[in-house]
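Readers of this paper often ask what the protein records in our data store actually look like. Such a record has a labelled line for the sequence and another for the backbone structure tokens. The tokens are whole numbers drawn from a learned vocabulary of local backbone shapes. We quote a single record here, exactly as it is kept in our systems:
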Amino acid sequence: MPFGSDDLVDDIMCTAPHTIRVFLAFRMACVGCPIATFHTVDDACREHGIERDQFLAALSDCVSA
């Protein structure tokens, strides 16, 4: 289940709850945030100053684990 930069943050956390730990590890305050229903991964990474490809790789690693 690969995730992309255009996927909504809330959709990722709802369909794969184990990915929440990745958001928390990157110190992203997306869990429980009402904006998560509108923000894409790209939006969230930009807002939090996170390197998008690094974050997507961590999400991918989490899903394949």
The chain is about 50% helix and 0% strand. The chain has a mean pLDDT of 93. Residues 52-64 form the longest helix (13 residues).
